[in-house]
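Batch manifest, entry 17 of 40.
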Amino acid sequence: MQKEMVTTAGSYHVPALLMETVDGLNIKSNGIYVDATFGGGGHSREIMRRLGKDGRLLAFDQDMDTYTNKIEDNRFVFVHANFCYLRNFLHYHNIEEIDGLLADLGVSSHHFDDETRGFSFRFDGDLDMRMNRNASLKASDILNGYAEDKLADIFYVYGEMRNARLIARAVVRERMVAPIDTVQRFLEVLKPFVGKDKEKKDLARIFQALRIEVNDEMDTLRKLLEDAVKVLKLGGRIAILTYHSLEDRLVKNFFKTGNFEGKLQKDFYGNPIVPLRLVNNKVIVASDEEVEANPRARSAKLRIAEKI
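Output type: structure tokens
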């Protein structure tokens, strides 16, 4: 069964921790589920295998490229939208509550390997990085239009670059000479600030920072988590796969305390006021065997919680 799934969607993206994620949702055959990040459809296909004739699955993705991976089944609905519109579309489909939701927050192999999208520093091309091609803001717009202080904040907060201010200053200086609108042009600007010993790691962080800003990833994640709690049934589960510390910290804090600051609130009697119960107290990571077969699973962290 698993091999069939991989060959169906694997050319687009091989999902990390597939069975662990879907197992964590504790699928009910007649339940209603949401895959907030459809992508290649790997997680969705595994959920569909476990649903009975009365089960339903709504799969969200803002990138229309993923539509080619849709599942032809009357129990399945593809929603071309960002998952921040979760409640709107559930209401549209007359759904008040769901039994579970998953989100795989990693960028798909398809995006990294498509040189026309600008997600990777491995290929030259336009600095785009939009998950939703209908969105107006591109990475090049940020580099050529943002103030120096704002650029520095992006590189420091989202990319965790200690030399963020120097990079931002160089971007502002160089864009006055010529626009920074291609990957190669941006790499030339970055060259003095990335050491050869950790070049790939630094470039990955800088590109990550731009991508997060282009797609407003942190705010949309916050909204997803808050909305998911509102629409989950009691006993319903949420499974989130993260790939960098910023996302993981948000999810960890929210699952443990119900807020993003990680501050546990208690009632008059000292009992914690939390909307969720941790299903896995320890974060789940990929096995050595999975990492060997799918290196991009190396940084995946899975957290699962249940509404109480």
